[in-house]
Structure formats: structure tokens, C-alpha cells
Queue: 2 jobs
Job 1
Amino acid sequence: MSQAHVDLMNAALTADTASRSACKALDRVYHVAYKLARDGGTVWWTMSFDPACGVRFSLEAPPAQDTLFLVGEFGAVIEATRRTKAGEFTPPPVQAEGDVSIYGRIMTAFNAAQAAATIDTEFPAA
């Protein structure tokens, strides 16, 4: 995921009333962050769910508090995503760390954001 991709998703989310409305029901800001190992470093894909401004994507590490971390290997996640997109459901190869109850709190906003900001992308074979 590039910054240009993130910018397109955030533009779609700025215009999306469903995800913003769902976030307004939250009691505070929550984060879901993919923490992916790649070439000895970490790739971050972070979603923030904010009652004041809705859902935002970032390539930055989230704060430690109020974050559900999904930890895995970059290549394995890309391959699972590519296969799922091709019609072969493959569960994401990640391990949840942190407060897993966050997912239940943000599920409505997450689903709305996914519907509004999914950008068609080609995933090469890993």
C-alpha cells in the first residue's frame, strides 16, 4: 500500500457519511493496525476510528493504547489477499494482539469504511 493509495482511501472516507456516522457512536478513538514484518523492518497499515472525524488510514505506527494489532508477515498477508481477491478465500495469516474487544466496538464503522474505500488493486504473486 502506497501513500497515494492511502490518500485515495482517505478522500473516499471524507465523503462517506456512513462510516463517519458509525464513528460518532464511539466513546473514544480506536485503532486497528496491521504490523507486518518485511525485510527486517515493519510495515504499518493503520486504521483510526475517531468520533470527531471518522475513519482514516495511515502508514504510521499507532499509539499503543486503544489499538488492536494484527501481526504477521507482509508477503503472507499479500498472498492471502491476492488469493481471496481471486475467489479463493484465505484467512489473513495474522495473530491478534492487544484488546480484541475493539473489533466489536468498531465493526459497523469498519464495514462502512471497507465498502466506501476499497480501491481496486493488483496483488502480484508473492
Job 2
Amino acid sequence: MSPAAVVLLAASAAVAAGPAVQTTIVPTYNAMDADTVKKIVDSQSQAQTTIDLSDPAGPIVKVQLAAGVNYSILLDDCDKGQPNLCKSLEFHALLPAGSLNFSQINSFNQNMRYATAYFGDKGVPELRMDENLRGGVTTEFVAYDVRIFMKVVSDYIQQAK
């Protein structure tokens, strides 16, 4: 092969490879602890958050929004060796008893994409949304779900009025 052909072949290979691409490594989580979840919630709202470690099933992040609305994030599927690292989150909110009837709960579930409303053990309307961390999620993904749940809770309360 002539020297000109080698130069042409090398130039063609460089053009085919394209410009150097910079990559950004985004950390992902297969499990989270309550402190990480609390920081994410705190970054998304003016809510007051506390961590409750009294439940043997796993930590709970309790959230109180400015309007007096409360919800909890239960950390589930916790590692036995490291009980603070949990592989799923359960967003959970309660409404006062009698604030929604069966028809309203049904309508909410037909129109809601992310969460499920139901009547709990004592006839109290409840709202639940689950998040699986297996396979890896970013903090931005969890933050997005926090915003979705706050919106769903707001819509849920509006329907109850």
C-alpha cells in the first residue's frame, strides 16, 4: 500500500469514528437509605421531613407539606446485613375518613396513571405509589417521583373537596 493510501485510510478512520465524545457518569442507586431519601425530598419542596427508625420493616421518611398535608415514604425490601439500605420505596398518604366515597376512589383510579387510591382497614381513603430501585435509579429519577406524588396527593385532596 502506498504512503498516500495509508494516510487516506487513517483519515477515513478518524472521520468515521467522529469527534471525541465526553461522557458524564451519573451515579445510580440499587438501594437507598433514609438519609438519601430525606435529602431528595428536601430538595423538591418546602416540606418538613423527619426520619422514623422505629418500624422493624424499615425506615420511614415522614413528610409534612405547608398545607398541612402529610405523607410518608416507607423504605421496603431492606438488606438484612444493612437494614438502612432498602431496594424499594412506598409513597403513602391518608385522607380523613369520609372524605371520598367509593365512586370517587374508582374515578380517581381510572384516571390516575401513577398511584392507586383505596379504602384502608378502617374505611380511611389511602393513596399509594411504589418505586422499585432494583436495576439502578438516579437521584433525579427519585426526585421526579417525589414531585409526581406531591401532585397526585394534591389532585387527590382536590377531588375530596
